[in-house]
Amino acid sequence: MRTKLKCQAVIAMLLLGATLLPLAAEKVEDILDPQRANKGFITDSAGVLAPAYLTLINDACRALREKTAIELAVVTVGDLGGLPIEDFAVGLFQRLAVGAAGKDNGLLLLCSRDDRLVRLEVGYGLEASIPDALAARLLERSGLSYLRDGFFGRGLFMAVRDIAHTAATAAGKGFSIAEPATWPAEAVAPTPLARPAAKKKGWDPVQSSMLFAAGLLGFAALGLGWTILRFRRSRGKAARGKAIGWAIVPTILAWIAAAISFFFILGFSGSFLPPFIAMLAAPGLATAGQLLASRLLKRRLASYRLPCAACGTGMDMIDDSRDEQFLSAEEAAEEKAGGMDYEFWRCPQCGAEESLKVKLNKASTCPQCKRRTLTSNYVTMVAATREQGGRTRVIETCLNPKCNFSKIREHSTPRLATAASSSPGPSRPAGSFGGGRSGGGGASRKF
Ligand SMILES: [Zn+2]
Ligand SMILES: [Zn+2]
């Protein structure tokens, strides 16, 4: 009991610690004032600057103040403690009080390592010479690309150099800072920071192709399972043969689905080859599986014997040629027309007999005698062309000797599709674009 309580206390403390951990972020009040610390201009709280860069940047800022009285402070932080960089910069600017009192000629370059943000805060006195748009351009000119690649020393030095040059020029002073002949080593290995993945416009072609192919194969496997189940549940040779015949249906559906999928993926990803390969491979594999399964089932069907309902023994099928002695004239006509199949089985063990019948589709049901003896013959009277439709004559005849049903009807067939039929699409006046519209522009300073 005691130990259990102790355990719970430890877990509670760990949880409390975990929730308090994010509070250990950087705060404006904790940033060291570089002037008070060492008469310098830079505080590297994030620890991203090698000593050589601290010297370079300090020297540049000192030279700027000596020539122009403008104060430029540089601060790096690990993160902004959840604050917007604008708020953090304003708070820090006030705390450090960069710039001469009354003149407000201070500048603060703030860089947050983990937020991957950089900001140039401009004192009131310099807002006329460095408006917001120019401040943004100064960051972008050369510093930002170095920061993006993880070169904090180079990035911040180049930003300081551009800012100092522009501020001095605006103050009417000729001023320039030389780039070092060789760049000193960076404090942290300059690995490019993870950039937010460019928002994808469509689908990933390979991924979506694989996903669709997997779906197709799953569907084909279900279809195959359905065929096998149908086969096993069917009683009699004809019924089982019919079940095997149905196996082609999921395969055909898989090819149709593959064609549709191909155009879908092509449209959404703009990539041709991955969906082309996937949408050939998946239904191809499904077809191979179906052919193999059909062959195995047909082999099993060849040795199939209907189990006797009475004793379970495999019965013998009575030869088709002798069927007629068991069949009525109508049934014989149905079997001959291909609308019905009749099977007769006899058990060699107990002599039990069983007859089975299965509907086949070579003939349909006659509307007059209701027997499966109606056959249809299609005769093309006028062939359809691209210019005009055709006419087909359907001659329906009942093969039941006791029925005289016969009917001739004609129906028209549609015009052949033109190979290059293209819809013109919405028209628009010549000499202009489609009429696209745009919202406003924008700019951001993230690295
Ligand atoms: Zn039997
Ligand atoms: Zn009939």
Q: State the share of residues found in helices, binned by percent.
A: 40-55%
Could you tell me which ligands this complex binds, including any ions or cofactors?
zinc ion
List the strand order in the largest sheet: 1-2-3-4
Number of domains: 3
Number of helices: 11
Largest sheet features: 4 strands, mixed
CATH architecture of the largest domain: Roll
Count all strands and give the number.
10
What is the CATH third-level topology name of the largest domain? Diaminopimelate Epimerase, Chain A, domain 1
N- to C-terminal separation? 54 Å
Question: Secondary structure elements and their pairing?
Answer:
Elements: H1 2-20, H2 34-38, E1 42-44, H3 51-68, E2 71-77, H4 85-96, E3 106-112, E4 117-122, H5 132-148, H6 152-170, H7 205-233, H8 237-245, H9 248-269, H10 273-302, E5 316-317, H11 329-337, E6 340-346, E7 353-359, E8 374-382, E9 390-398, E10 406-413
Helix pairs in contact: 3-6, 5-6, 7-8, 7-9, 7-10, 8-10, 9-10
The protein binds zinc ion (2 copies).
List keywords for this structure.
alpha+beta, 42% helix, Diaminopimelate Epimerase, Chain A, domain 1, 11 helices, 447 residues, binds zinc ion, 3 domains, 3-stranded antiparallel sheet, 4-stranded mixed sheet, 15% strand
